[in-house]
Amino acid sequence: MNSMDPFIAAALFIILAPVVGILITGLDRILTARMQGRVGPPVLQPWYDIRKLFQKKQVAVWGAQSFFIFCYLIFIIFTGALFFGGGDILLVIFAFTLGHVFLVLGAYVSYSPYAHIGAERELIQLMAVEPMIIIAAIGLYQVNGSFLIGDMANHPGLPILLLPGVFLGFIYILTFKLRKSPFDLATSHHAHQELVKGSTTEFSGRTLAMVELAHIYELVVMLGFIWLFFGDNLWLCICAIIIIMVLEILVDNCTSRVRWQDAMTSAWFVTLVAGAGNIFALSIM
Amino acid sequence: MSYLQKSPWIIHYDASSCNGCDIEVLACLTPLYDVERFGILNTGNPKHADIFVITGGVNEINKEVVQNIYEQMPHPKVVVAVGICACSGGVFRECYNISGGVATVIPVDVYVPGCAARPESIIDGIVQALGILEQKRHAMNAGVEGTV
What pTM did the predictor assign? Predict the structure, then answer.
């Protein structure tokens, strides 16, 4: 990927990420159903859902929410394009965070109490996750000597061997980012929770479709981060992603949602012990 | 088949049901019937829903609630009245607090009678609702329905 022209790589991401993301999400739903003893929807169900949402009439109490959600989608796509174009990992993280800030703003637009609590929890999730993502960037810098993703992807060895703690911490926060139980505080794929649909309660039609699409791009970006831990060993990386996704789905199906205090303190604990401990060990080696 | 028919999301509301029909609606989600095979999801959020599944007769207190949920749903939308009480008021029809079937408050597209309605007939009712949903989408695009 890195030997490619950055613009071509970014364009490929914009076109191919929805395909890959929809297939992964569709397989996720089938695997979830199988774990519950059901048959599950077709693989392309996430695609049908998004297309259907575009066919619905737009209902928004305040027009600003559509604008914020559009910005959310654009910044997530920009993040991914920057990532797969081999850009600076710090810039990727900043753009990623900014995208989520737009999601929170979109959820705050309406006066719905469900959306407001969802937005607050979205912020809590950001607080829980951000330190670990930055530590992952620092760890990858220590191994590669560069903040450029283009250089990291060229690493001949396995950075994961030097960064086991960082990798573990990253997998822990991946559950937040994939919005899976036990850390699906802000919004969930499952119905009937105490917040109705949390931060996405007030979105409908095209706006909700943009949220779903942004989640799919986000999934591909997060899996891209896992790739950086495996350097240029692409097959090993694909095996690792499959194992991690199956584990995430298993955990999603056998745990219930935790309180936000537990979610945040445990994420920070893992960040401090596994992530920062790893960085410290690497720096004195 | 349009995308609307491949991904119908449902909101289920218990007007004043005895819970018999509610159990049967929820039974549709269980491994035995598994309506997610058809892309049907129970959202619990009117703004995400396409099909309003309502059980039990409407009473004087929750008339406004039923109306409110219906109005929050974006077009195109259909209403499925599940169980004989939702269809006509059933045995509770003469009660002092019951207004009657769901049709006294909002327009109903599909009636699924039964006491309690069986999951097979509920699924059949929803599949019929999908056809009406598609008609309503065409009507909406033609500017006939949902323009308000």
Answer: 0.90
